[in-house]
User: Which sequence fits this backbone?
């Protein structure tokens, strides 16, 4: 796809940003002595609802942002990945070998993990790639920059080596939805069908991010269920509405202690499934499978949690279970129905409840994201919520498109008064729901 074709799929307000970033990526690739053969836009994602539900087999409601990674690449006869970040010039040369050791905590962890997993699953990879990227997303802001980078590297290596023609790939990854699930397994290290697992990047998330990044449609929000990835419902966002996103200035890191806090949510879900399977004699894979296995499954699991003797673990399991049930089984379907019917006020009230549940039950909010969500509603946003991994990151607000720029300026000004320490690192942008990396629809 040509850069001009990609630009045409974005709304007018997003095109200049994309075209500038693509120019920078082309220049960075040229610094390696290589001309561009292929162009890609790999977006970030906005999680509208479905906080920490994907790895539990639940649903979420997402769209792509019109900000993301401008990517240019060329194939190479040398089996290595040469990759350069156009923003700061950092670069790396990565051999396409199954025994390479990614360094957790370093940016090369993500492209190295992709190279290692593909070499193990479909190797030897005989063709390399020279790739440059330029991100227009704020760093560590909950907009899935890490998953976008993983997706970008995969798409380039897949094209260079014609992975869709590989018999093992065809059997294991037969559809775009399966590809999203496979990319999630690259990131979290899980097995995928007949493909053995690996250690991943060090986080235990699901495939929501990769699904939104690959499969979103411009102007639409989509509900997917995960494990496996299944499309359930698509809702067109009315043209008079748009999203405003503000990154709080508090980095949503996934390294060190922050990674442990992020992974804790998945660990608690795993503990709930283990508790259920041990008592029921079943072998359910996900919390969704457990809770839908019998009419009284939720009541039985609640009773099992109550019987846990360690009070700290019991309370943590209870909060995690109740958050999942509220978010996935109650708020998300009601909010979907409200938005689809044009009941925007009801949608906003349900999103408010989701935000409070993230604060009180999931426990992944910080004062800055709580303030941003509250301020957005005070300023007249139809709905607003923090999203992503949590412990920092970003907040989205749904506003009238004709006043979005003014809204963003006022939102940032009010935030600066409330959190003067974080505000200098905050930033924001306006975006309609954007296209996914694999879609060909036009805005």
Assistant:
């Amino acid at each position: 796809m040509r850069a001009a074709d990609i630009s045409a799929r974005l709304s007018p307000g997003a095109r200049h940003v994309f075209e500038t970033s693509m120019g920078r990526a082309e220049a960075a690739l040229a610094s390696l002595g290589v001309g561009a053969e292929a162009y890609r836009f790999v977006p970030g994602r906005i999680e509208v609802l479905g906080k920490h539900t994907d790895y539990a087999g639940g649903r979420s409601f997402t769209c792509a942002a019109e900000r993301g990674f401008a990517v240019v690449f060329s194939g190479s006869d040398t089996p290595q990945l040469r990759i350069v970040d156009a923003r700061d010039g950092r670069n790396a040369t990565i051999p396409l070998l199954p025994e390479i050791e990614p360094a957790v905590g370093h940016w090369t962890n993500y492209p190295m993990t992709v190279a290692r997993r593909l070499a193990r699953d479909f190797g030897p990879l005989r063709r390399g790639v020279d790739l440059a990227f330029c991100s227009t997303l704020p760093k560590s802001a909950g907009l899935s920059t890490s998953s976008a980078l993983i997706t970008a590297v995969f798409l380039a290596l897949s094209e260079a080596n014609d992975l869709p023609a590989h018999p093992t790939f065809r059997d294991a990854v037969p559809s775009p939805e399966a590809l999203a699930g496979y990319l999630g397994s690259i990131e979290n290290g899980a097995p995928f069908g007949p493909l053995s697992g690996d250690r991943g990047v060090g986080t235990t998330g699901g495939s929501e991010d990769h699904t939104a990044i690959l499969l979103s449609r411009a102007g639409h929000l989509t509900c997917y269920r995960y494990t496996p990835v299944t499309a359930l419902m698509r809702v067109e966002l009315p043209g008079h509405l748009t999203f405003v996103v503000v990154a709080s200035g508090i980095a949503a890191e996934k390294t060190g202690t922050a990674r442990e806090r992020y992974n804790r949510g998945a660990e608690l879900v795993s503990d709930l499934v283990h508790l259920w399977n041990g008592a029921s004699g079943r072998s359910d894979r996900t919390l969704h499978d457990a809770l839908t296995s019998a009419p009284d499954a939720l009541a039985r699991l609640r009773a099992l949690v109550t019987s846990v003797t360690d009070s700290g673990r019991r309370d943590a399991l209870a909060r995690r279970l109740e958050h999942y049930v509220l978010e996935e089984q109650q708020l998300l379907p009601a909010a979907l129905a409200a938005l689809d019917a044009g009941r925007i006020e009801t949608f906003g009230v349900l999103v408010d409840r989701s935000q409070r549940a993230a604060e009180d039950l999931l426990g992944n909010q910080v004062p800055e994201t709580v303030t941003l969500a509250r301020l957005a509603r005070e300023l007249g946003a139809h709905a607003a919520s923090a999203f992503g991994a949590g412990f920092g990151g970003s907040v989205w607000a749904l506003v009238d498109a004709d006043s979005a720029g003014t809204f963003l300026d006022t939102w940032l000004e009010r935030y600066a008064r409330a959190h003067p320490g974080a505000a200098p690192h905050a930033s924001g942008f306006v975006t309609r729901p954007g296209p996914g990396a694999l879609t060909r629809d036009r805005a």
In short: The radius of gyration is 21 Å. The longest strand covers residues 59-76.
